[in-house]
Amino acid sequence: MRVLIATDAWYPQVNGVVQTLTSVGQALERMGVEVKFLTPEGIPSIPLPTYPDIRLALPTARAIAQRIDAAEPDIIHIATEGPIGHLVRRHCLKRRRGFTTSFHTRFADYAAARLPIPRSLSWRWLRWFHNAGRVTMASTDSLSKELLARGFRKLMRWPRGVDTNLFQPRLGADLGLPRPVFLSVGRVAVEKNIEAFLKLDLPGSKVVVGDGPARLELIRRYPDAVFLGTRKGEALAEVYASADVFVFPSRTDTFGLVLLEALASGLPIAGFPVDSTRDVVGSAPVAVLDEDLRAACLRSLTVSRAACRAYAKTMTWDESARCFLGNLKSSGALLVKPDATLLSA
Prior knowledge:
By secondary structure, this protein is of the alpha/beta class. The protein is 39% helix and 17% strand.
């Protein structure tokens, strides 16, 4: 089987969408599935007005059609709702071929936080975009229920995973900072609510890993916090292993991959009691979720690091890829022969 995944989010961006797609793609390849990506690489782009550190690809319909034809996919999955996703969607509808989509980002909430765009209008557009596909994949049960309530149809669950070989406890790992070390990792932007963490009165040290439009302002306002910038691979894993508690102040994430990375590193979670975070940690004794974030941080210091690691080891990218592949096969969007004849939905 040959799978084409279309995405506007791609390197050099560092985010959960890119990490999910590349990790699942690698796992699918190990299963014998050929995976190709239709990404912004080689396409003219401009800085995104509200996020100048991100570039927006500006493809043409002809270029997108040529890339799809060259890939000769058996099935097409659209991961994002940007210009690439939009043109791939239009191409599929024009040629009457099925496709699947996935919901990764609360675009309506993020847009409303920065632009005078009503959430209702953004949600209407997202519903229009995704309901044209055979299936929309969501990362958690609570997100699926929310999307159903908002009028999305044909939803399937697609869980995430973590590389437990890379992210693991490391004996002697130390940042050389006063302990306990409270760590937050992710995009440094207003929608991530990082300031809720930075303004807390906590013992030890507060560390932030990541970059984004709010970073310089937060560095100015919180000089006692340590901002390490972007870290990847071994360097990121070393930081996780050097901390004592992972603080996740976001209220809007659909699924925080950083939560699994932290747990795999043996870090307990402190966060707000929102559905998206509850879905990741489940009923396992690996997190303290409280509207009083300071209290959650302090209580997390008593959580078993071994329990965190054990829980993370139940979530792998191979299992995520198997679920993704099963969704593709059951969606009815798989081509049965090159003439674009489709299986019935």
